[in-house]
Amino acid sequence: MKKCQGCGIEMQTDNPEASGYVPQKVFERADVCQRCYRLTHYKDLQPSSLDVEVYEKAVEEAVAQADTVFLVLDTIDFESSLHPAFERLLRRKRIIGVLTKIDLLPAITSEEEAIAWAKRRVVYADNVVAVSGKKGWGIEELSLLRGKVTAVVGTTNCGKSTLVKRLVEGARPTISTAAGTTLNNLTFEDESGTIIDTPGLWPKGRLLEMLCSRCASSLVPDKKITSKLFDLKQGQGISLGGILYLNLKSEKPLIVIAYASEGVEISRVSKEKVKDHWQNLLEQKKRPPCNDCQGNLHYVTKDIRVGNEDLVIPGLGWLSFRHAPAVVEVVAPDDLQLKRRSPLVGPKEKSQKRYKTR
Ligand SMILES: Nc1nc2c(ncn2[C@@H]2O[C@H](COP(=O)(O)OP(=O)(O)OP(=O)(O)O)[C@@H](O)[C@H]2O)c(=O)[nH]1
Ligand SMILES: [Mg+2]
Ligand SMILES: [Zn+2]
Ligand SMILES: [Zn+2]
């Protein structure tokens, strides 16, 4: 059996449609499957999804071998990172929460604050550290926390393979904006021990899984998250891409701060104009969603009560409120699971020291 060194799947020459395919003529010399090759060289986002149970089983196997688990948590899509299966899968292990993609965090929040916030959320972790796999920040500190055998686990796209590549010299797991890149466990050895990269578990209710691969990729942020502040009066609203619309129903004015990746168009729009606005975005091809995705999304309107908290739109960003409580009307895809949490980027106390600059 020959394993793809990019995604961990068994390589095969029979079925071009199935995972692990490589043409017969290159089988002997190929290190990676055709999908990995295309992902790496052409950013060709071929989706590949095996059964959810297959991924969970792989994670279970990796964890069983490990004495330490790096539970990778995406700073920007934290709620999606907390897959309910992890509490069961990681029982009785030494767990290091790895808050990654810290380079994308709005500069107003320090790493220390983000770590403290994450610790309160992942109480079963023995420790939490902040890193950036992309920039290489915090990797030395993380290396010191490795066990003899370390399993790197997390949900799809949270940045596991990027970290593994940083941790083990010479490791070349496939990294891409497509969710579900790693398909099976990949084991790497160096003088410090063993590291196992694992496939991501699929989060429920996240936007990425509801969109075509190009739209989904356009949402994976590669620059700092941008924020926009809106002072809404009753009846006024804002739109985030062609995905979510929020309108203030209650009387008292509300401040809304919208956080999302740079590619997401955020603007003040009245309720009467939102349909036209979304149609314009479609025509100008301002993704997401594209025409196909738009057709697949089923939008519903709900009234919700918000407090001085974050309303998370998994896979898109989050909204933060001041002068709440308030009642807002939200139009969004039915399957999108909006979540509430304590604010990640909180209002600052005057007495606080200057924040660490990054
Ligand atoms: N800005 C930034 N982007 C990151 C960081 N780590 C990963 N990414 C990006 O996030 C995307 C997913 O990274 P991967 O390392 O492939 O994620 P994964 O967890 O292995 O994903 P699966 O194999 O699909 O489960 C890629 O576009 C990476 O470039 C980081 O620290 N900062
Ligand atoms: Mg991966
Ligand atoms: Zn592969
Ligand atoms: Zn699309």
Quick summary:
The protein has 358 residues and is an alpha+beta fold. Helix content is 22%, strand content 25%.
List keywords for this structure.
358 residues, binds zinc ion, 5-stranded antiparallel sheet, 10 helices, Rossmann fold, binds magnesium ion, alpha+beta, binds guanosine-5'-triphosphate
What do these coordinates show?
It is a single chain. With about 350 residues, the chain is α+β, with helices and mostly antiparallel strands. It has two domains: about 25-205, P-loop containing nucleotide triphosphate hydrolases (Rossmann fold); about 220-340, no CATH class. About 20% of the residues lie in helices and about 25% in strands. It is built from ten helices and 16 strands. The strands form three sheets. Strands 3-2-1-4-6-5 form a six-stranded mixed sheet, sandwiched between helices. The chain has a five-stranded antiparallel sheet with strand order 7-10-14-13-16, with no helix packed on it. The longest helix is centred in the N-terminal third of the chain and has 14 residues, at about 50-65. The radius of gyration is 21 Å and the shape is globular. Magnesium ion binds near residues 160, 181 and 182.
